């Protein structure tokens, strides 16, 4: 099992999860975070830190869509280990549904700079 970041993170990008990760397996996109499945040690400490419940075990991803998205973008986005402020409209965007189709950006974030 591994953990994955799902749709709820898009356009919110709370980073509370990155500071508690003992193996630094989070990667930052412009408006989304991902977990690199090969680096995740399945400890689960990140899951309760997410204020929008965007982090799920891969067992809750029956078609593997989120595992695939997390793996793909973790290869090209920079690593992030330090919390940053969420996106400006994060609270407003937290309950928006189907954000992957309408709001997701494939562009990288800044990572730890």
From TrEMBL:
Its cofactor is [3Fe-4S] cluster; [4Fe-4S] cluster. The keyword Secreted does not apply. The keyword rRNA processing does not apply. Residues 1-30, 31-60 form the 4Fe-4S ferredoxin-type domain. Keywords: 3Fe-4S, 4Fe-4S, Electron transport, Iron, Iron-sulfur, Metal-binding, Repeat, Transport. Ferredoxins are iron-sulfur proteins that transfer electrons in a wide variety of metabolic reactions. This is Ferredoxin. It comes from Parvularcula lutaonensis. The lineage of its organism: Bacteria, Pseudomonadati, Pseudomonadota, Alphaproteobacteria, Parvularculales. The gene is fdxA.
